[in-house]
Amino acid sequence: MKVDFISMKNVFFSSSKNGEEREGLLAENDENRPPSIRIINDSNREYDSSLIKGDIESVREGTERGQNSSEVELKTYKRRWAVLIVFFFLSVCNNFMEFAFSPISHFVTSYYGINELELNILALVYMITGCTTRFLAMWIIDTIGLGIGTYIATALHLVGSWLRFWPGYYQDQYVWLLVGQSVTALAQAFIDITGPKLAANWFPPNERTTATAAGGGSIFVAALLSYALVPRVVVNTWDMRGYLFIQAAVSTAACIGIALIFRGSPPVPPSYSAGQKKTSFWKALVFLITKKNFLILAFVFSITMSTGISILILLTQIMLEYNYTPDNSSTLATIWIASSVFGGILGGPIVDKTHAFKSVILTGLCLITSSLLAFTFALEFQHEMWILYIIVCVAGLGIVAMPAILEAAVEVIYPVPEATAMGILFFGLNVMSFFQSILIGLLKSDRFKYRIPLLSSVGICALTCIMVFFFKPKYERREFEKVEKRKTTIQRTEGNRTKTITIEEEYIEKVTVSNLRSSGE
């Protein structure tokens, strides 16, 4: 029986406009395929009769004598959901601390005797450490391993959360509170970029975007919890001690979960691309900064997400300027974030089913931009809160674009490691969040209040919508997996039907028939 196979490299590179670049990235991988994925091209395979009568398991060991084979071992583990859940728990705890003091800013300033700038630094420190330590986190995760990087983040988060409680809970120990906040911010440099890497290592292609959405959506869940629960837990300044202790205790539980359950990757990869050795860290950085489609996604992600985060952190201060109450801002933020969580959850399955990355991204960005414009003018209607509720619901649904952006970024830069790509995206997010938080305060005026900074944010978001039209992607990871799948399956006609079977299935079937014939003799 003759079976024709297509050489993956010929198809993969001939269809790519950047073939020479990508061949350079993959060249170092040709001799380093992991033993769990062994692929050998074969254009004229004939079965050895002595092998056919042998043990079927010889196929799994790749011991065909003198013959070539195409063997691919892929497996999905039920444990992947437990790994995702404990990581999600840790990520929520870590991101919660960034928003921990925003809903109760008036209590925090009173308790520690600090001014507004010192209060804002407790959130800005996350953006500053993200800018300074992100590249180290990228290098550790991509070079040493996802497991080691996550364990480092877990240790940093645990130490930082307890420093915030003791000695940070003393009224004259604002410095220790800031130190603890800074240590947990160091952990965030690792945690933010882990989601897509975890999804690629543990989940099959039809679940990857959903897993990415769960990891990336933790920031919205954390913000939701902070605005929905914190004002009900901290009702006076003396509740601060118990509040900091609860955060440390819950964080300890999350860290224990990571230690017991989390692993960087499964024994056998769930997809063809997961088993492929990625390009080196420094070569990946050079490739990313010259990749137009990736840079567009990085700009869009950084601008859009930083705008939302900056406004959310300063929301209480903004609304107080328009004579709203802290309860008004807390309720509005809760609705906004709840809608964002729903949008993120919705985005994952939509992209997994349709792979319509560009359409989903553009739709989400248009929703965010239009709702932010409406929010800017609706703020002046103090007695019409229902209008603001509708506006922030629409803005939250726009977050459907976030998982699409993260997965599209990984798709267009394959085989660059996922953590390196995410590191660039979140580095841009940290930089833009820092400057936007500062600019919103600087552009505020007594006459126009926050109208000018908010309109400036609208203009920047509108620019991201325009840039999406210049996004002309080629989804390299999906193309790679299609070619690999084509190489390990054959089409067989049975009557009027065409059946697709794997090489291993066809081989086992032939062995079974041969053994039956032998036993009949």
Concise overview:
With 521 residues, the protein is mainly alpha-helical.
Backbone structural class: mainly alpha
Helix content estimate? 55-70%
Q: What sequence of helices (H) and strands (E) makes up the elements? A: HHEHHEHHHHHHHHHHHHHHHHHHHEEH
Low-confidence stretches: 1-71
Textual characterization of the structure:
- α7 (116-144) runs antiparallel to α8 (146-165) and α7 packs parallel to α9.
- The protein is 70% helix and 3% strand.
- The chain has 521 residues and is mainly alpha-helical.
- The protein is globular.
- Mean pLDDT is 79; it is low at 1-71.
- The longest helix has 29 residues, at 116-144.
- β3 (489-494) and β4 form a beta hairpin.
Strand-helix topology:
Blueprint: H1 8-14, H2 19-27, E1 37-39, H3 49-52, H4 57-61, E2 70-72, H5 79-99, H6 105-112, H7 116-144, H8 146-165, H9 174-191, H10 195-202, H11 208-216, H12 218-233, H13 240-261, H14 281-288, H15 292-313, H16 315-321, H17 326-354, H18 357-378, H19 385-397, H20 401-413, H21 418-442, H22 451-468, H23 476-487, E3 489-494, E4 497-502, H24 503-520
Antiparallel strand pairs: 1-2, 3-4
Helix pairs in contact: 1-2, 5-9, 5-12, 5-13, 7-8, 7-9, 7-21, 8-9, 8-13, 10-11, 11-17, 11-20, 12-17, 15-20, 15-21, 15-22, 16-17, 17-19, 17-20, 18-19, 18-20, 18-22, 20-21
